[in-house]
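A brief tutorial aside. Many learners find it easier to grasp structure tokens once they have seen a single protein encoded end to end. The record that follows does exactly this for Ribosomal N-acetyltransferase YdaF. Read the sequence first, then the structure, and try to relate runs of similar tokens to stretches of the chain.
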Amino acid sequence: MNDPLPWPQPVTLRGPLATLEPLSREHHDSLAAAVSDGQLWKLWYTNVPAPEGMMAEIERRLNLQASGSMLPFVVRDANDTIVGMTTYMHIDATHKRLEIGSTWYAQRVQRTGLNTQCKLLLMSHAFETLQCIAVEYRTSSLNLASRRAIERLGAKLDGVLRSQQRHRDGTLRDTCVYSILQHEWPAVKSHLEFKLQSRD
């Protein structure tokens, strides 16, 4: 008897402003170039890899994929240039819940429609194809830009996990946990589609 396929399976998701494709080791050079735009790894409250640590980060994400707890993607912009990474993570195949996270983008595409497009693609697939009951977002309580971006998506704050982990510099991190539930998705989807259309 064959073992069941892991959930979820790798997939490529496409929209007008972004394409998400399964991460591979061949993406290394493009990702190292992308992360250099803005020197994102210098933000102490994030876990963005430095260029010299990119292969280790790719291997980490692929190992988590092999264990069934993560499905990592690279992000391409409308010009087919790799500009970042994102993932389905903390995957719970039994209860059909997952988190969207470990996301970073090159500075030049931040505060554009690209992040909205990526979240629309990821959540559409999660709720409509994978039939998730909830999608989570987590971030440091001190990462105010990330918290505002998550709230603009329509996610609700579930609570704060105090001293849940450590920042890269060793300081304790309080983690804000947000979620969007399956019954909330239609309204959130309409909101995200409106945001994208208003950019046209």
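Self-check: The chain has one domain: 13-197. If you spotted this yourself, you are ready for the next section.
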